[in-house]
Specification:
The chain has 236 residues and is of the alpha/beta class. The protein has helices at residues 14-25, 37-47, 61-69, 94-115, 141-161, 177-180, 184-197, 206-218; strands spanning 5-9, 29-34, 51-55, 74-79, 119-128, 165-169, 226-227. The protein has a 7-stranded parallel β-sheet with strand order 3-2-1-4-5-6-7, with helices on both faces. Helix 1 packs across helix 8 (206-218), helix 3 runs parallel beside helix 4 and helix 4 runs parallel beside helix 5 (141-161). The structure holds NADP nicotinamide-adenine-dinucleotide phosphate (NAP). Keywords: Oxidoreductase. Belongs to the short-chain dehydrogenases/reductases (SDR) family. This is SDR family oxidoreductase. InterPro entries: NAD(P)-bd_dom_sf (IPR036291), SDR_DHRS6-like (IPR051122), SDR_fam (IPR002347).
């Protein structure tokens, strides 16, 4: 990562912050983005001098354009930023059902498009999906479809943007910041179910997903692939 800059939108917490920590530890620079200044400031303080931050909302294309305007170059791009509602078709409003697409799919699509002028030929991009794409954990059809669509987006962008490399990481349930915001009983029940479902008998760790992202950043022959750091969840 020496001399390389990784831009991580959603890098102020969770998996994005774990990736930022690895980039810095490997000698690279990071620019982290998110909607909350205090969170970004604290994360950048933790990461040290090789980190800078800027507020951005992936739901707002003008905000994304201003974000990339301020970035000198993008050697690696990772876009785990998203906020959405999941649930059954029978219960969600159309707006709530569309929210994974609005935020997670189109947010990443627009981020990549607006980053294009700053990408070098040897740049790489990692999109965030989720293993619900291949094994629905429960009734949440639009969320399941959104993750599958992001995996397809990765393949489509790999074709269009080559030699820039585009890959997707599609994790299972991760015991980390996102689930810590949810009520304890919801979290514990989800982890217990996931532990029964995954071959490795537990939820994942943010560090394990971050390792998969770093592999996709670094391996110069990986493009158009989806990695599933899911403890074998999809197989059982
Ligand atoms: N954790 C899991 O179990 C899991 C499993 C499979 C897939 N995933 C995917 O991984 C993504 C990241 O998960 P995580 O565990 O790292 O959660 P996290 O800690 O909540 O990270 C999400 C980050 O994105 C930022 N963000 C959210 N919406 C944004 C927006 N519109 N524009 C810019 N930044 C935004 C958040 O900061 P602000 O709120 O301050 O903007 C936050 O720092 C999730 O969205 C999910 O799709 C997670």
């Amino acid at each position: 990562m020496n001399g390389r800059t990784a831009v991580i939108i959603g890098g102020g917490s969770g998996i994005g912050l774990a990736v930022a920590g690895r980039v810095v530890a490997a000698g690279g620079r990071v620019v982290i983005g998110g909607r909350t200044e205090a969170r970004l400031r604290a994360a950048a303080g933790e990461l040290g001098e090789a980190a800078s931050w800027r507020v951005v909302d992936t739901a707002d294309q003008a905000s994304l354009a201003a974000f990339f305007e301020a970035v000198e170059r993008v050697d690696h791009l990772f876009t785990p930023a998203a906020s959405y509602t999941t649930g059954p078709m029978r219960e969600l409003s159309d707006e709530a059902a569309a929210s994974p697409f609005t935020s997670k799919f189109w947010g990443q699509y627009h981020a990549v498009r607006l980053a294009l002028p700053k990408l070098g030929a040897d740049a790489s991009i990692v999109l965030m999906a989720g293993a619900a794409s291949v094994r629905p954990p429960g009734p949440a059809p639009a969320y399941v479809a959104c993750n599958a669509a992001i995996e397809g987006l990765g393949r489509g962008l790999a074709v269009e943007l080559a030699p820039v490399r585009v890959n997707v990481v599609s994790p299972g349930t991760v015991d980390g910041n996102l689930w810590r915001q949810r009520p304890e009983e919801v979290r514990e029940s989800a982890f217990a179910q996931y532990s029964r479902d995954a071959l490795l008998g537990r939820a994942g760790r943010e560090s394990e997903v971050a390792d998969a992202v770093m592999f996709l950043f670094a391996n110069t022959y990986m493009t158009g692939s989806t990695l599933y750091p899911d403890g074998g969840y999809a197989l059982r």
